[in-house]
Amino acid sequence: MINKEDVQAVLDLIRPSLQADGGDVKLVDVLEEGVVIVELQGACKGCPMSQLTLANGVERILKERVPGVTQVVPADMVEYVD
Question: Taking the CB of residue 74, how many other CB atoms lie within 10 A of it?
Answer without folding.
Answer: 18
